[in-house]
Design goal:
298 residues; mainly alpha; N-(1-d-carboxylethyl)-l-norvaline Dehydrogenase, domain 2; Single alpha-helices involved in coiled-coils or other helix-helix interfaces; two-stranded antiparallel sheet
Length: 298
């Protein structure tokens, strides 16, 4: 299930990068295919990158078949199951979740058609930056986001193993996926190496190989997301990957305010920084009385 969920994420990430090349950089199908071919010689070497290049070039009656395909993506359910499991176990598998929602949004094809005539986007000029440099940034953004997706998938398996008492060999799982699955890639070998070095690795992002890889990709990753946002190009998976990364590396998050809000309206209590494990309640009005919303329990 997690394999298929990661597959959803990989496919959506590739589609978002394709969309940026097509709509911002105004690249032809053949130019985009050449880019994917080039990426397939390096760290992004994978089955999905390879077949994407083939799809982009394929013609019938001298016309690109891809350009005539209806932009409404189907799904069998395994990505959805991964998202549901992540919610049940409390694991933030955000990228796979967004990839499922992206397919759901694509299915609203008639509604999107009507919305496109009424909802305005940004008024921006054609891209005038360094195209070659930006394509390099796109590769970095794709690679960094892919790392996040796999890290989240392994987080979910780790939590399930903890709850069910499983002893999973994560390196062997990566090796198995590399052998003949849709997400097979050179990248999976790096995951196996990470778990070979430390079988109790807390998170893939904390392995030195992936830490260094993210650091090298970070500038391009951020530039791609900022540029796509300015141009109004939807990038749900690229952007949620960066949001997760920034959240995961944050020593302090604004969840303290959420806890205060919960305590205000529902007396759900909170912990203090210097007294973890001790739950207290505050009467936030300062003048006594019942301040709780008794019908709200979240």
């Amino acid at each position: 299930m997690v394999h298929n969920g990661i597959e959803y994420g990989d496919m959506q990430l590739i589609c978002e990068v394709y969309n940026i090349m097509k709509d911002i950089l105004k690249m032809s199908n053949d130019e985009i295919a050449d880019t994917f071919d080039e990426w397939n010689k390096g760290t992004l070497d994978s089955f999905l990158i390879q077949i994407t290049a083939d799809i982009l070039r394929f013609k019938e009656n001298d016309k690109y078949v891809l350009d005539s395909i209806r932009d409404s993506a189907g799904q069998k359910g395994t990505g959805k199951w991964t998202g549901i499991a992540s919610l049940e176990y409390g694991v933030p598998v955000t990228l796979i979740g967004e990839s499922v929602f992206a397919r759901c949004l694509s299915s609203l094809i008639d509604e999107r058609g009507r919305a496109s005539t009424q909802l305005k986007g940004p008024n921006v000029q054609s891209f005038d930056g360094d195209k070659k440099q930006f394509i390099e940034y796109l590769g970095q953004a794709l690679y960094a986001s892919k790392i996040i997706s796999y890290a989240q998938g392994f987080m979910l398996m780790r939590e399930a193993a903890k709850q069910y008492g499983w002893k999973l060999n994560y390196g062997s799982i990566a090796l198995m996926w590399r052998g003949g699955c849709i997400i097979r890639s050179v990248f999976l070998g790096n995951i196996k190496s990470a778990y070979d070095k430390n079988e109790s690795l807390e998170n893939l992002l904390l392995d030195s190989f992936f830490t260094d890889a993210i650091n090298k990709c970070q500038q391009g990753w951020r530039k791609v997301i900022a540029t796509a946002t300015v141009y109004g190009i939807p990038i749900p998976c690229l952007s949620t990957a960066l949001a997760f990364y920034d959240g995961y590396r944050a020593k302090r998050l604004p969840a303290n305010l959420i806890q205060a809000q919960r305590d205000y309206f529902g007396a759900h209590t909170y912990e203090l920084l210097d007294k973890p494990g001790e739950f207290i309640h505050t009467n936030w009005t300062g003048h006594g009385g019942n301040i709780t919303a008794s019908t709200y329990t979240h």
